[in-house]
Design a protein that fits this description.
The mean pLDDT is 93. Helix content is 24%, strand content 30%. With 147 residues, it is of the alpha+beta class. The protein has one domain: 6-pyruvoyl tetrahydropterin synthase/QueD (Tetrahydropterin Synthase, Chain A, 2-Layer Sandwich), CATH 3.30.479.10. Strand 4 and strand 5 form a beta hairpin.
Length: 147
């Protein structure tokens, strides 16, 4: 038989935090969008669309609940900062001026998400991976920011 704890053991000094090290959490999203590429000779020169798959990973130290960052909070940043410019949009018009390659887009997503992430418990964005097709993606990592 299993007995769920009924209270937090604050009086004994015990903590809900088991891991004292940095931990990474990641959330995945999908969106549909259209774009075309400039200065490119191939099929993608013409207007076309994709169902993109986006993975965003952040790391930090655990809070009093034993969590790095709530998955719902990751989703909230996506919903407010990214989705309005990405989902069911013509990316050449909704994003800043760029050639809307997966490589350019993944860096813009990285920067946008990083700016919205709270500055607490060492939270930092680790990487963003943007799949343009099920087998093709571009990725940007934190360690590449200054290199």
């Amino acid at each position: 038989m299993f007995f769920a704890p009924k209270e937090i053991k604050e009086a004994t000094g015990e903590s809900l935090i088991y891991c004292q090290r940095r931990v990474m959490v990641s959330k995945e999203f999908t969106f549909d969008a259209a774009h075309h590429l400039f200065n490119y000779e191939g099929k993608c020169k013409a207007l076309h669309g994709h169902t993109y798959r986006l993975q965003i990973a952040v790391s930090g130290f655990l809070d009093e609940r034993g969590m790095v960052y709530d998955f719902g909070d990751l989703k909230a940043i996506y919903k407010t900062e990214l989705e309005p410019k990405l989902d069911h949009r013509y990316l050449n018009e909704s994003l800043p001026y760029m050639n809307t390659t997966a490589e350019n887009m993944v860096y813009w997503i990285y920067q946008t998400f990083a700016q919205a992430l709270p500055n607490e418990r060492g939270l930092q964005i680790e990487h963003v991976r943007l799949y343009e097709t099920p087998s093709s993606y571009a990725e940007f990592r934190r360690e590449w920011e200054h290199g």
